[in-house]
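Sequence only, no structure available. Ideas?
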Amino acid sequence: MSKITAAITAVGKYVPDYVLTNKILETMVDTNDEWITSRTGIKERRILKEKGKGTSFLAINAAKDLLSKSNIDPKDIELVIVATATPDMQAASTSAYVASKIGATEAFSFDLESACSSFLFGMSTASSYIESGKYKKVLLIGADMNSSMIDYTDRTTCIIFGDGAGAVLFEPNIEGLGLKDEYLRSDGNGREFLQVAAGGSVLPASMDTIKNKQHFVHQDGRTVFKFAVSNMADVSEKMLTRNNLTKKDIAWLAPHQANNRIIEATANRMDLPMDKVMVNIHKYGNTTSATLPLLLCDYETKLHKGDNIIFAAFGGGFSWGAIYLKWAYNSN
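Reply:
I predicted one. Tokens follow.
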């Protein structure tokens, strides 16, 4: 009997309508388009403006896009995983709400959080459920409303992040396609360098935490950049050596979209030309858990069955890793 592997068989996405351009940011903080573009590669980002809507809204619409494109009956989905750093609320599961709203009434669900590595770690988790043989349809959604934790008077963070969601469906495959290898890591000593300090159990919300702006993202940019460049490049290169792959074997590198210089450094370490690197950071900024699935959606028509793709991500925590996946279908 052929070994069961977990393959991505459908994708979907959603980004809000409102476009926050660098030119608009120039009117909000002391920055300019040339400075932002040269240091990050970002030209614009999408922001969810509607009051009362959060990460679940983004996730639901990404899932609906996938379902409409693939003609999947939501009742056939057995598990819904929402990878996110910005859940709708504490205690109540965002994934449970999403599953109910898309009609996945036969599925169980849970949220998965590891900052910008959330979707990457979710790929490993979803694949394990498929490879167990117990489940045949697992929906993995990466969604984040980063604007909910951004201080738009802080020019070091407000230029970077955007809102969005992407979804993928994992199903069993017996052709040797799908997830082939992974190398995932974390180091909790890094959490002081990228965090939202308040709102959790250590520092619950109070008048002081609000006054001190401790519910917004804080990062030590230089330290995060240094660790991201080193670790994303290391694990991506490891995927090649562990699987006896050369640059000629790789169709695409799908790197987390945090900073264009980090993306280029990872490609350089793998000796890959930039025309083999998926990039959409200029359109969306850093959407945290949504960057990888948004890449797959934007590049879907360029992907071919059997393509070797290396995914790489780095996030707060610190958390990082790489995954080697063989693409399972032609989109046209």
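The chain has a mean pLDDT of 96.
Hope that gets you unstuck.
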